[in-house]
Amino acid sequence: MSSPEAVIRARGLTKRFGSLTAVDGLDLAVDRAEVFGFLGPNGCGKSTTIRMLCGLLLPSAGEIEVLGYRIPEDAEALKRRIGYMTQKFSLYEDLSVMENLDFLATVQGLDRRAARQRIEELLERYWLADRRKQLAGTLSGGQKQRLALAGAVLHKPDLLLLDEPTSAVDPQSRREFWDSLFELAEAGTTLLVSTHYMDEAERCTRLGILDAGRLVADGSPAALMAALPGRPLLVECAQPRQAQRALQGAGEIIAMAQIGASLRVLSAVEDARERILRRLAAQGIEARVTPTEANLEDVFVTVTHRPLQRAGATP
């Protein structure tokens, strides 16, 4: 059930490419000033969904309403009120930072004096003031990302759609970028961000997990972790690789991953601890098995049954 505050409403959203169903009957509602995250592996339908929401791709079925506009019918009018930032740097590399922003301001029909004031404000806010004359193609990954964000919010959009915007930058740049996103949300901008990083997903106020084009989980990160059936377990022993081989194929185990010298095991079975100890003892492995705190990786594995390597890894 969508909230009266919802700025994005999608019902039964579906996209087919021939025999491939990329998005399958998706229902989605995103409220004003929310930082809503799409979490999922490459190919799960995140980018396709975002492109349909902003009118760049026609849905095969379903209904979309964004900021009160019906999509795709009102897609042209919607463009003036949204910002869109893709994973790949999409500005002109042979133009300077300033020239790129001037060009975008002209395309968006901004008043020249107001545009110049807005550009100066964004150059300061995103630490690009000393790079204004530098060619965009010579910027670092983090600088390109900040320039792309400045271009996406130049016209002060009500909604900002970001498709895996931090996939090509270092952790410090990612942290700074997310600080900028929360600054936008605090000012009233609604954000929908797709990611495959667990630490980024934890920052979102609400999270939707996509798998094979379907929304398999929806809620705040804390609520999703609290609803996790069973508890993850930490297996500590002298031979974690040997322990992993001994537990491989056990029906009660959803997934395992070695974390340092320990083994993290996910199971929804009540007596999982006792079963694990028995299996290991039968192989002559002494171990200590204790419950541990759930994380978003555990949620992801449970709802998709897709094993991961470690928290924060790319699925």
From TrEMBL:
Keyword ATP-binding annotated: yes
Transmembrane segments: none
Gene3D superfamilies listed in its UniProt record: P-loop containing nucleotide triphosphate hydrolases
GO molecular function annotation: ATP binding; ATP hydrolysis activity
Chain ranges of the ABC transporter domain: 8-237
InterPro entries found in the cross-reference section: AAA+_ATPase (IPR003593), ABC_transporter-like_ATP-bd (IPR003439), ABC_transporter-like_CS (IPR017871), P-loop_NTPase (IPR027417)
A Pfam family reported for this protein in Swiss-Prot or TrEMBL: ABC_tran
Highest taxon of source: Bacteria
Keywords for this protein: ATP-binding, Nucleotide-binding
Protein's UniProt name: ABC-type multidrug transport system
UniProt source species: Metapseudomonas furukawaii (Pseudomonas furukawaii)
Lineage: Bacteria, Pseudomonadati, Pseudomonadota, Gammaproteobacteria, Pseudomonadales
